[in-house]
Specification:
298 residues; Serine Threonine Protein Phosphatase 5, Tetratricopeptide repeat; mainly alpha; 3 domains; disordered N terminus; elongated
């Protein structure tokens, strides 16, 4: 199995450079000869995190946060970014109380920012809401997570449009929450919404459709709607086979799910054939990964 770098290490990868450059400019304009150094501690913390040195990373993030507050102000977007990363590190270590404090502080800063109505700032607010909701789920606070997901969805819809891939991804989190709570009608409605949005944006064979179709099939199966489940998952499998090929290991997961649906529907002979196919796929050497075609994502 390939080594997976902890997600927390990359949470600020997209914005840290731009934030740092803006902050350094402000510092120099103020008349100080040397640019700020909080980004050095920040990047060192990320490196320590990638190496699994979480105690060292925590100390470095705290140093970066303190320096950032002193140089950019206690309520700057850069401070919110530091808080988010430190919160993610706490989450990685299952220090959920500390993580919650960091995420809440970051959310307050972003909500009260002078430019909070701008699209970029709204996107950051939606991100903070999602992070906090995800944390609540880990803490078993699903009732607290649900309204945050809904609010995040509203922001993403407004910023990117209701038919954007980003909007579909936002709805996915709430749909997953409903599935875990066995609120299948609500989950079904959301997955249908995701699928409709994706079809409108990427077409009927967009590769991004396959996971959502697979999830919808699972919901139908849980509701005892086996004919609907059969129709939907066949479509998902066809998309995957076209995009990835008939022997791709990822396809085996979907085929296995289909076999489970067939078992529930008492179609054991068909299920056995699929299970044999899954076994054959998994016995083959894993081919080098190649990115999927972008033709359907334009």
């Amino acid at each position: 199995m390939a080594y997976k770098v902890p997600f927390v290490c990359f949470i600020a990868a997209i914005t840290v450079v731009s934030v740092a450059s803006k902050a350094e400019c402000k510092h120099k304009i103020a008349g100080t000869a040397e640019p700020i150094t909080w980004t050095k501690d920040f990047e060192a913390a990320q490196t320590a995190c990638r190496q699994g040195k979480y105690s060292e990373a925590e100390s470095l993030y705290k140093m970066a946060l303190q320096s950032c507050e002193a140089s950019t102000g206690a309520a700057s977007p850069a401070v919110a970014r530091c808080l988010v990363d430190l919160g993610a590190l706490y989450k990685q270590q299952k220090k959920y109380g500390e993580a919650e404090d960091m995420y809440k502080r970051a959310l307050v800063i972003r909500e009260k920012g002078r430019k909070s109505n701008l699209p970029e700032a709204q996107t950051d607010i939606a991100s903070s809401l999602n992070l906090l909701a995800g944390l609540y789920r880990l803490e078993g606070k699903d009732e607290d997570a649900e309204p945050l997901y809904k609010r995040s969805i509203g922001i993403v819809d407004k910023v990117f449009g209701v038919n954007s891939f980003a909007a579909g991804a936002a709805v996915q989190d709430l749909a997953t929450l409903y599935v875990d709570q066995k609120k299948y009608p609500q989950a079904e409605e959301l997955y249908k919404r995701i699928i409709a949005r994706t079809e409108k944006k990427g077409g009927p064979v967009c590769p991004i459709l396959a996971p959502s179709l697979n999830s919808l099939a699972t919901i139908y199966s849980a509701e005892g709607k086996y004919d609907d489940a059969d129709k939907v998952i066949k479509r998902a499998i066809a998309i995957e086979e076209t995009e990835l090929g008939p022997d791709e290991p990822h396809l085996a997961v979907m085929l296995e799910n289909y076999a489970g649906i067939l078992r529930k529907a008492k179609r054991d002979d068909e299920a056995e054939k699929l299970e044999a196919r899954v076994k054959a796929i998994r016995q083959k050497p894993v081919p080098p990964w190649t990115p999927p075609s972008k033709s359907n994502l334009k």
